[in-house]
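Suppose a colleague, Dr. K., hands you the sequence of a protein chain of 676 amino acids and asks what its three-dimensional shape might be. Before reaching for any lab equipment, you can write down a predicted structure in token form. Begin with the sequence itself:
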Amino acid sequence: LDVSFNTSGTLKDLYKAKGATIFLDAALQADKKVVAAGQVWNGSNYDFVMARYLDNGQPDATFGTGGYTTLDFNNLSATATSIVILNDGKILVAGSTSGKFALARFKQDGSPDITFNSTGYRVYSFDASVARTIKIKVQDDGKIDALAGHTLARFASDGNLDVSFDGDGQVYVDLAVSGDLAIQADGKIIVSGRTSYMAAIRYRPDGSIDTDFSGGKVQYLFTDYDEEIGAVASSILIQPDGKILLGGHTRFYNFARQPNHWAIARLNTDGTLDNTFNGKGTNYYSNYADEYVTSMALQDDGRIILGGYSNGASTQTPGIYNFQLRRLTADGQPDNTFGNSGTVLSPVGNGDSRNYKILISGDRILAVGQAQFANTVGVIVAYKLTDQPAATPSITLSTPYDIIKYSSPARIKLNAVVNDAAAAIKKVRFYSGTTLLHTETKAPYGFLWDNVATGDYTLTAKAYDENDEVITSNEIHVAVIDANVAPYVSMKQPSMDTSYTGPADIRLIANAKDPNGRITKLDFFVGNTLLFSQKYYPYNYTWRNVQPGTYVVTAVATDNEGLSTTSAPVTITVTNANLPTVGSPFPANGSDAPGGLFSFKLSPNPVANMLTVSIEGLQDKTGQLTLLNFSGAVLKHYNTGSDKRVQIDVSSLAKGMYILKYTSGEKVTYKRFIKM
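The predicted structure, expressed as tokens, is then:
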């Protein structure tokens, strides 16, 4: 477990006192905050519940009330099962209430977004009685695809059914049980679940069955065994190369006992099994214990994490379920470097525990679900993604702003930080050469060495722990001279290459310190132009109404003897607020494609080398691509002709944000991408 998350690696819902709580889904924000959604008992029925946690596992006090918010559906029971973070930071949640499908939208602070149906939520007539099969995804244009039992529906961003989708906004899903929903880069929709077998159906963007996908439906995947029964593909994951992973569970007739086994299949884009995956396109795990895959995640190196739960027993008899993770190599083999032969089994709480969603956040896996303590509570468990070797204890010695030259008689502030000590620290000693300067017994460990004479000094610190182990710091070589020393200055804010939208108000902050006297003046410059001058700390200034352009900002600090220092320059960019809206669609035109459908997609995004541009819906019309920097300056043109799939080499571009413009006749659209 990753004990840096909530100090133990396990987070229990803080609101369990209000009643039983279950987390059924979760999503990561760009700032690594995790938002969990599910249901909470209010004393008479269940409400939608959301909780947001910081990257360290602590509740986010800026969200709802103490990190927690609920939504009551007129005193009717409700369960939230699917959550999406929208591009503007708002949160879209789907679930059911009294057997009907429900959508709710919340602001970033957790309050209901009353611009959505005036109440923040909406209930629809189609059936959602099997609550936990409800899933939502959001298209690039903001439209919402929703799976609820036998219904696949599309809504506009305002919650109204989109009648351009199969004529009435919804289609029937021909599966006995639905499991998950995914959207491909080309806008096609995959729904997984089961017939009597693990199965998946693919729909075109207009809602029609995609017959290019094995005739429209994929099933009978595990043909190397006797007939599978009770199988469900409960999770879909689309890889960057377009291949499709189906994860779930299955059973087989040819086993004497028939527990559920974790099962996974990888399909090519046409629905056929990918034989580069475990040699046959499928893999399963059988240890005669009930096992379920509920979620999957893909690492950057192509390895696959399967999340779910297992009763860990040696027979079919149901037992207490535990959180379980498995990791596969990119070609479908168990990754024996992960946990115990590729598997991690985690009892959580003192009873039944089930994992419904996994997320990869940096170097950790977050597993979200429920566990039994005094009652059922929502939990998030954090695992280290890779086992790191134990950190070597260390002590770091520093001076403020790393100043190493002073004027005599000098005042030198020394700071020592002890990292990853295995035992408690009893004391820290500061040395000049072999001469003991000071002993500190309490953190933070610091010492002001005063009245230091001219000379060269080698400074160190030593930490002594309760086991009498000694850790020695780095050396700092300090010179004290009989002359004035120039002050230190640096720009703290903004950082290099920061981009703003103009006209902008830009906050400038500088750090400055004089090694032997005091700072009498700090000036902010743009190029050679003085912006502002001030005499006292803190050194900051708000530069207002900055127009589009590229600027070089510096700070100049002057001490009480007139000696000055100029900071390293910081380059910033202010872009034009009147650039066209990125991602705006082409006007619909029925002559170009059925129903006016048009697709302009970039992948991968972010991109390092080759950017693939996919254009659909214009039939044989020709077009041109224009590459712009984020200020709107044209960098290059590409004539695409009638090609609808183009690759662009962007490896030579500097890191940052760019815009790709597509022009075909009078139609123009834009997409933003990030160069890594």
